[in-house]
## 1
Amino acid sequence: MDCKERYIYRFGASVVDGDLSMHTLLGGKGAGLAEMTRLKIPVPPGFTIGTNACRYYLQHGKLPSGFARELTLALRWLENAARRTFNDADNPLLVSVRSGGAVSMPGMLDTILNIGLTRESIDGLARQNNGVQSLALDSYRRLLQMFGTVVLHVPQKEFDVILTKVHIEEKTNSASELPPKTLLKIICQFGHAIESSAGRKFPDNASEQLDLAINAVFESWGNPRAVYYRGMNGIPDEMGTAVTVQAMVFGNAGVDSGTGVGFTRNPSTGEPEIFGEYLDNAQGEDIVAGTRTPVPIAALAASMPSIYNQLSTIVRRLEEHYRDVQDFEFTVERGKLFLLQTRAAKRSALAAVRIAVDMARDGLITRREAISRIPAASIMDIMAAQLDFSAGTPPSIATGISASPGAAVGRIALTAERAVLTAAEPGADPVILVRQETMAEDIHGMDVAIGFLTAHGGATSHAAVVARGMGKCCITGAQTVVVDEAANLVRIGEVVLNEGDWISLDACTGRVFSGQLPMRPITEREPALDQLLQWAIEQNTLTVRANADTPDDARRAIAAEACGIGLCRTEHMFFTPERLPHVRSMILAGTVDERKAALSALLPMQQHDFECLFRAMAPWPVTVRLLDPPLHEFLPALDDVRAERALAALADSSEEVARLDHLIERIRALAEVNPMMGHRGCRLSISYPEILEMQVTAILQAAITVQAEDGLNVVPEIMVPLVATAEEMRWLRGRIDTVAMEVFARSGNSIPYQVGAMIELPRAVVAAGAIAEHVSFVSFGTNDLTQMTYGFSRDDASKFLESYLKENILAVDPFTTLDQEGVGTLMALGIAHLRAAKPNIKIGVCGEHAGDPTSIQFFALLGVDYISCSPARIPVAHLAAAQASVTAHNITDLPATIRSGRKGVDFPPNSRRKFDPRRNGYSCQPPALIPEGI
Amino acid sequence: MDCKERYIYRFGASVVDGDLSMHTLLGGKGAGLAEMTRLKIPVPPGFTIGTNACRYYLQHGKLPSGFARELTLALRWLENAARRTFNDADNPLLVSVRSGGAVSMPGMLDTILNIGLTRESIDGLARQNNGVQSLALDSYRRLLQMFGTVVLHVPQKEFDVILTKVHIEEKTNSASELPPKTLLKIICQFGHAIESSAGRKFPDNASEQLDLAINAVFESWGNPRAVYYRGMNGIPDEMGTAVTVQAMVFGNAGVDSGTGVGFTRNPSTGEPEIFGEYLDNAQGEDIVAGTRTPVPIAALAASMPSIYNQLSTIVRRLEEHYRDVQDFEFTVERGKLFLLQTRAAKRSALAAVRIAVDMARDGLITRREAISRIPAASIMDIMAAQLDFSAGTPPSIATGISASPGAAVGRIALTAERAVLTAAEPGADPVILVRQETMAEDIHGMDVAIGFLTAHGGATSHAAVVARGMGKCCITGAQTVVVDEAANLVRIGEVVLNEGDWISLDACTGRVFSGQLPMRPITEREPALDQLLQWAIEQNTLTVRANADTPDDARRAIAAEACGIGLCRTEHMFFTPERLPHVRSMILAGTVDERKAALSALLPMQQHDFECLFRAMAPWPVTVRLLDPPLHEFLPALDDVRAERALAALADSSEEVARLDHLIERIRALAEVNPMMGHRGCRLSISYPEILEMQVTAILQAAITVQAEDGLNVVPEIMVPLVATAEEMRWLRGRIDTVAMEVFARSGNSIPYQVGAMIELPRAVVAAGAIAEHVSFVSFGTNDLTQMTYGFSRDDASKFLESYLKENILAVDPFTTLDQEGVGTLMALGIAHLRAAKPNIKIGVCGEHAGDPTSIQFFALLGVDYISCSPARIPVAHLAAAQASVTAHNITDLPATIRSGRKGVDFPPNSRRKFDPRRNGYSCQPPALIPEGI
């Protein structure tokens, strides 16, 4: 029954009917004011009309029957609390009427101030406020304007025209500067404007104003922009808005009044101090207008010590209660402090980390809460280099995909060769490699460049992957960029840049700038971040490894507290200038013996690579992936060889011509229509077992050498890429074990080693159970698995992914964040097969997704044992994985197909799965991160 | 206990201990002789020593204890049955000792004839055989030779040397021509050879011969070639062999004796007549030696009517009993007929069909048995053209993959353009297109060529797919072929062929011949095959549709009794010379309006295509797939355009240079690293909805036109290729329906249409349930699904598939026969999702596998509604699908993952699922194939 339902809830002056938990009924604002009242924080008294009244109004076109009486009673109480009287000329009670839904819809609903002010009570208002006439007149002017537009639907521009004219005449900028006479003139003109536009006079009666205002706010729920906003954000139309009616307070009532905005801590630096601004004799909009300069809140300690002390107490109380840093608004009305609003403060990434760590240290929040509060990806911003836009932001010349964060300023190089030459000059400026797209053969140029810009490719293209691996900044898919290698220039729309010109990349936003922009100095490693990460590592049940190919990578991985290398790509070792000739001889070999000869030249180099890597990582495990890319990636470009041949022909060098003809023939023979699905991965090892034999020999000899020479415990894991069937793995396992036996026999020494398979083909997912029988571990290569599952080539997909994201056919790029429904379902299927076949099999993920927080959360829920990402992403991975551990019990938003497959996956709530080098496995004891002896 | 176990089983002379079902114990030969005895067919009497004795012997190195006594009893019985005496000089009993396992191991085990013959009994043997002395002497000579090699391990060449010397001296070729004196000399020399080589004399005692021979046969089970053969064929080593001891009969005992081999029906033509050869006074090896010419068995009707009548009766009895055509051996010994062996006859594909049909007509077998007996793929041989090798087979110059069966003789063309030009000349010879590999742009050249030869690609490369679609012969992956377009020649090893030279392809075996070989005339359509196919169609529960792009294809499909078109590839319609310019304008368009203009030029042509197709197929449904290949396939090759640009630059044609520069830029911009996973399929429709709009408009306007003008019931089905997610399908379905509404509104007429999705990505398999909500049907594109599941590009996989097949890592090419474990499991998963979401959804398969019998069987078990294959494969598909229906109850060899998903799939045993045009669906009533009114 309507008559029994309560619609109005009071707050302020020691009376409070609601609390924070009632935000569905009272809206965020109303519930917040109630909560502040409960905390004995001074707020201007008022009451909130619940969303139930709104719903009734929208449904019936009128307010419920008992409402009027409830409103009268609430007003009577408010008059008492505020010690003013509604509809009274001498001591008028003015109120604000504000909308406020349960879900914030910023700027979408309406607010009216100064309700209750009439021509008759203007003088009374002035008297209340130290006799300031202009305050009262300007308040009335504002009432006319807001009431006119919101309630009577007078177009805003009717008022603007009048105000602008006056400002021109009076040479003023703001209404608060106007003398009373002028304000009176404006009031008069506003009244005419309302009458002629709305066809009725402004209601100069407080009760009528209030009733109309409440109805207008309810009706504003249905205005087109609000409806659109709700549609966009999935907010149900039937929620309705609450209306808060609150006594007005005036910060512009003289020098003992003022207004301020503040943060309980510094939102940029996180420092634990009240931070904000205060302007005396002013209202909120005066701070915004910027015509007068506010003072720091800290200055109040001297000028208004009592107010400052009150504020300090309130700030402590707010943080203790809300357990988070708050952003608050306050007004001082004739020496009396009122808080108007408080809410969780937006803060910089750095501040977020410092605040969370400080609060956890102070015991205000738990360490797990501290971990949960930091958006994992945001810590990249703390660690990455940035351009310095403090002197202004020039127009960007191109925009691409933010493929690897950071910033770089350097000179353009258009080829890897040029990059190497330029960088080798004494005192050379930094180099930025700009290419249509990068390929494996560009790796030496990428090594010396400080950043990459490519016209093609997405967030998982070659350039992106390499950049993240190297921790360098990279922008890909800048589609307007056209590289003209022949002319040694880059065209970007109308802009033409020559090789050697300066260019600046802001990879955090994907913007490209011409010229040499300043960089922000990279600060020292942030101690709060280190602390947070340490907590994250303690909390984490997922082992984090690094994708690392070099001892440098390995050292960075160790420094970031990676528990081993989860992916060492051996192909990168083949691209160095002194090796490429041997690699090419191997590829061009006409017979198995010729191929073996070329491989035996590579063997000592490869073995040296592994020795360095093992030394850097011991005793952590190192997973070495056997050669993966198709062989043609190691051959020069056909056009280059053709050009060389033409020169040789001109020089009558018939021997050279014959050699180049053979090369051309081999390049053609090895060319593939779809190299991603071609002769690569373990298919190479099956066609050319000599390559596998060389690599396995190098891995195991290196391990034996390091163990013998350095006394280090080396744990090599040999990983076979692109496995499709159990038969392949059986065959390869046989070969690997045979080679191992030979190496052990030759050296008279042996070491334990593991053999694993990459699961990156849907075929392998289906066969995972059978594959498990031949391996000790598997690692999901989610890049390739995404490519094959979708049939999306990551080198080509940027061409259509744009339409897909624009049309909302895909919510996110599946190469950036794992597609849980599709690829994730296959992973879950594969893991179910794996665990069924071999419960203790070690399962990892080494695709790019292993550095993406959302994907990491998902991997944790799937119950993988480890993830392996680029060294630069390890802190992010630690944090995201820790967050997954914290929220592991909440699996309701997993796709149903996966949830049902998760039986038996269990997360110990407070333990950390640790690598145990003695058994080359994982345990849940909580020992120190780096085992003793390191 | 050994003493209770029976080892010896008798047969012949109305006594028989075994039967056919005991072949594990008695071996195939022993069981067959027992079975013939049961059928009262005269066989020389004998007994079989079971495999249990062999196993005992191999395990213990000696025969079981009771064995000797059992052998003695069996011999006593045999002496009685044969009316001769073992170890008797006057009337000796001679026996053959033959091995015979349960599984046939041809030529792997040993046989010894004439056991029981001694120096003393030679005269007795001559007396038994019309006094022919040389018969007896030669029998002894053979005994020495066989016993010497098999039992005493004397090298064969010891005997060969002696024989050769005698033949040279006597100027003879065969031992049967030698006079007694010479035979005696040979016997003497053979005796010396045995003594010096084996270190012992030949045992001139019947019992000793028999014991040693039995042991030798048992031991031959372990000889290296037998072990190797078993390893190759997966025959368990512990099976052991049986030994059959059988009384010798002699066909060389005079003119009333002889020997023959026969078939109960003609194995080449299938004609129902005794077929075979008879040679009087001869043994089996004389027929093989070919020194005398045998007569047809039919001639016995005159020369030996009684024998002929006996044979006729036996033949009827054999066929009635074995219910199949038999291949038998027989001997006449002095007017008495003995059958020596019978087994199912090998027969030609044509004979197999005729025999099965005749037998079914005669009621000997059921129609379902007739269907089951024909290897479905073999009927392609009956229908395909063949080279005529009757005048001898020249050496082939290359060998490749038999990608599309048949044969072709024509002149070489190296480019599509040349093929078109050559074929257009008046009185032109047929053309064979020889290319490194074919691409979509070669389609007009493939249209005029009669066969294709490519150096690259496998059984599912572009050339192979197009060839099968066109029913033309094709050899792919002939790796030694090098096409040098620049020099207008082909190099194959040392052979060089010029464009225009004659070449002959035998695509059934993959052989390539230089020059113009004769063709076998293609016979009229075989009535027995038509009958068999009619029965198959009646039996079939799977609907068979055709992949057809042209009205010609459609007519061939109708003639082959296809129930509609399951895949019309619209891209083939874009490659004709008058359309390509419009297609290219569409691709090169800078704005949506330009693109729409180009498309509107294509619209009437495309609409005309569909009108023709609908007219040809009505009222059967036509599934039109929207544009699938990436747009760059329609652009010219970059090298060609560069050459053109160079010419234009020379000619100072700056306008043309600019045009070509733009073209080069677009070709580069559209180029893809992995086009198979690139901007193709429905991704085109999402990026360029104008293309989809044109195609849907053309389809629906064509359908309305044909319905209105011809009064035909047109059932267009619009199929969207390469769908990955339900969101794509929802978006596309919306577009298609919008276009349909516009077409219907414009024309004032409407027709029912269906929208479907191709499931060819693993992502779509996972999402199949959600996709089902937006479609009426789906079709599995198993080519692409195989590519994506394995990550095998079918254009590139031939490079490594060879190693895979050689190393037994793959049993078959997964592009030829569906990989049930991997791709099949995904299909089963998808079908389970589809049926769960929409039980009546129509599910088809339109990949190449839809023409492969093994795969079709599997599809039937998965419960798909229809398969769609190239018109040429439709008879194969009908037959294979019918065989699947016949064996549908037997699903035990399905992968477990699939079996469990098959719940609810039910095959009505004797009904046929028929298309019902009235409801555009399927029913199980058995109406006529083509509905009334056609």
## 2
Amino acid sequence: MEGNQSNVAAASPNGVSSVPAGQELAMQTLSYSSQPPSPNTPSTPHQQSRNSIRLLSGILAVNILLLGSALVCGAAFSKVKVLSDEEIHIYLTILLILTTAWMIFYMVHTASRTQAVLYKDSHAGPIWLRGGLVLFGVASLIMDVFKTGYSTGKLNCESPVKVTFPLVQLVFVVVQTYFLWVHSKDCVQKQSNITGCGLMLTLATNLMLWMSAVTDESLHQTREEASKPNGSFDHLRDGSMFFKAGRSGCECTHGACEIFEKGFYYLYPFNIEYSLFASAMTYVMWKNIGREIDDCSPHKISFRTKGVVFGVIVGLLVVIAGLGVFVVYEVEVTGDASTERVLIMYYTFCIVGLSLMSLASLAGSVIYRFDKRTVVSTKNPTRSLDVALLLGAALGQFLISYFSIVAIVAEKATRTVSMLNLTCSCLIILQLCLQNLFIIEGLHKQPYHAEPPVVSVVFINEGTSRSNPYSPSLKNDNDEPSPVENSLERSSHSHDFSSTTHSSSSRMSWKRRALKEISGFLLLCNVIFWIIPAFGARPQFENGLEEWVYGFSMWVAIVNIGLPFGIFYRMHSVASLFEVYLTS
Amino acid sequence: MEGNQSNVAAASPNGVSSVPAGQELAMQTLSYSSQPPSPNTPSTPHQQSRNSIRLLSGILAVNILLLGSALVCGAAFSKVKVLSDEEIHIYLTILLILTTAWMIFYMVHTASRTQAVLYKDSHAGPIWLRGGLVLFGVASLIMDVFKTGYSTGKLNCESPVKVTFPLVQLVFVVVQTYFLWVHSKDCVQKQSNITGCGLMLTLATNLMLWMSAVTDESLHQTREEASKPNGSFDHLRDGSMFFKAGRSGCECTHGACEIFEKGFYYLYPFNIEYSLFASAMTYVMWKNIGREIDDCSPHKISFRTKGVVFGVIVGLLVVIAGLGVFVVYEVEVTGDASTERVLIMYYTFCIVGLSLMSLASLAGSVIYRFDKRTVVSTKNPTRSLDVALLLGAALGQFLISYFSIVAIVAEKATRTVSMLNLTCSCLIILQLCLQNLFIIEGLHKQPYHAEPPVVSVVFINEGTSRSNPYSPSLKNDNDEPSPVENSLERSSHSHDFSSTTHSSSSRMSWKRRALKEISGFLLLCNVIFWIIPAFGARPQFENGLEEWVYGFSMWVAIVNIGLPFGIFYRMHSVASLFEVYLTS
């Protein structure tokens, strides 16, 4: 849905842009570029201040993060008990209080002045990101309540910081979710110095929360594994870098402690996801500081499923099969005897699903090769960011897959489960690469509706760029080229364009339909591949081989870092595929 | 020296640019932007292919790197001997052979066709980077010879891959150094698909070499530490993640083995630095694929030291003091009794030097506040990359400093050495932040020589933008604004400009001199802070506190990752400060 309006700039036919169109493009690129010397305003001081804000706030964030990393590493990896969780919790509490105070200040300040935010970026903070934020925010709130309950029970023997921290985090999550819901589209112009530092503080706080949650979760899992009565990894236990000297012997004063503990460890992944979502949104807000854009609400493209049957049906079949596998997995995986059977079922489902998805993505990319639609060439920071997030989030899955492949190949494992795991890991890499290529190509294509055959008539009859509905809306009319020059330039291309449109109109329909089928199918498949890990399936730990090769603590760290990014990737690709579906 | 010519675009007086100047700027921004839809050529296919090259080659590099990381981690961290060095060496050898083959193919192909490379980026591959590459390349060659000698002696009991690898690396270093020396400025247009993948392969290979060298070096140091007869970290030994079961009992067949081993471990840091340099240069080449730029050789700004006395003298004093400290450090640090005395001397020198540097940078930034020179606002990818490399490389020092600070504060250490170390670490962070601000502000300022008082006369008398020596050189003259409009716009600003020039001409001289003094002083100081770590001083390990807090293996990893970036940072900042010196 996002990104359609601003991308209509390059709608000039056949990719050959005339000189005046080039000038228009130039002006629009400037208004989008990160350093916009707009022609009528004194650009240099504005841009200078924008650069220095970026630099200062960036340095601030780096310092917060590195100090935090040293604290987390010191507490988690150190054998000597010099640093404890307490220092980290104090540090995080201070960060949370500062960030919450700044967000409240920002909201009050923005509400009190009518002219505080002049521009809004309609592509920032799309609904799936905000919806996900609220969803994971609610889970984080419950986690904080559980944590507070658990820590209250241990108040007699543990530091009061452990009770304060979840309470402060609770307030922070509420304030931040509201803040990002309301303000994620802001392009701040006033007081941008404070705002830049505030946003970087928020970003650093979220990344610190992410880092500490990943470490906590990994520590907890390693402890659980080590405390198993007949765990198969006893030999690894004393060497593990995460392993601490076990529980402290601090007893809980109320009975609900165990429930609270189980509850909040179950909710940890949602909290990790929440931090990632908030980081992404804060980063986009920070990038938008000082940006001056014409806010046009995106084109309303009607969502129709008419005619798209095959892709949706196959996709729904995959979803239903996946849900079945997920339920069986969750029910049976605890039993020792049935684990192998369940894993074989799980991997088989993955292999079938991923193969279909890879083939679909490949077919989509092939169709794009024959697709004559122009590529949107205007610079759009939100779109570039979208692509970067998609590629970056895929790294998480890549990481896990490559470590699995190396472990299985090195071990020369020949069990059925291992071979299936190997095939599955290879397919994940292949599928992610192909799907990324398909999505990125799709996002950069001109929407189909922008090329009706009447365009060539409009081009010839109307001289000025204003009356051409496919030219970008410009803020200044000063440098409009002469109508004569314009129509001359355009008429020279109009023949090519109309011929292309007419000759391809008959084939266009099957191409469009195929693209819609493919994106619909991929969308549904990504939903099920999101649901399975998001709601707790962790075949990476049931398999046992990677744990043995890398050591439990290291494998836990890899999975806990990689998997949340993988979940983020699936959600993001669902949103992107929806956009591809609409524009096809 | 670099970056002067292209930055003259925003020389419009007082930062208020007229509309025609805005148009020129727009065109220039486009020619510099990463997605240039240049007005007279069919832009879309060109840009589309450029984007897809980036995407494909980026995915290739990510896959090579992740597979390599899994191999390195598996071999280094795993307790179980499933993966060994052999697999990594085979993988690296394959990568080296492929990369060497591609580089030879590229050079032959470029030499055989006259039109193979049409554009050159004069800012890419500056002399300090190429010089550093050759310097570290020579050290790497010697290291490879030593390694081959060492491995030949152990051929009876170790894999032949260990002899093949250094020999292949030797050929690779020779070919790559020549390749980057000759071709680092190329903006490839033809066969850019293969070139993109080839360059990403080269980048990935260099990063893999860096990763494997850092791991090797860390493993070696941990082994050395563990094998010390009365090492003070015995209690850490068995838990260390790098620690392997000691030497394999494989005896060397010739007598020079020990010399070879000592030699190549001494040369490791140079090889690590070589990989970083090559990576930076390859990355710039990759970014330049498909870029079409007017190649203008940079302005010859004469290098004069006349009048700059104070900064240079103080700088030289710091250099001489530093060399003295370095020699004493290297001679005395082996003795156990004198270590503390030497460390106190070393830290005192650092504190004095860094304080002076921080004050100088601060003074420079304050002078910039009063400096009315316009900021260069055109988009220049090489300049942005320069700044990114400067900020990124500083992270290495930040990392080490923050880990030191946390260790000392957590341990509540009160020894003189610890307090000095704490002060020194804090000062490093402060100094790097201030120096980065100073350098980046300096790099973005218009060179002083670009604003002679005659400019206003030129502006009024000559109408067209071609004859204005401060307007950017454009490739197309089609959209030149009308002379009348131009002179009107310009004359309205000429008064402001000439008045500024005249009123500030008397004060300009002390500002310029102060900036030259400061950049000269900082340059010399950075040279000595480069020499000390580059030639082997490692006070981070003599101190002992951080090792105790984080564990030896972890601290070794942090220092081995952070320090090469720190050394790269100092070299890069020397080059940047030289540029600031010239343009002030």
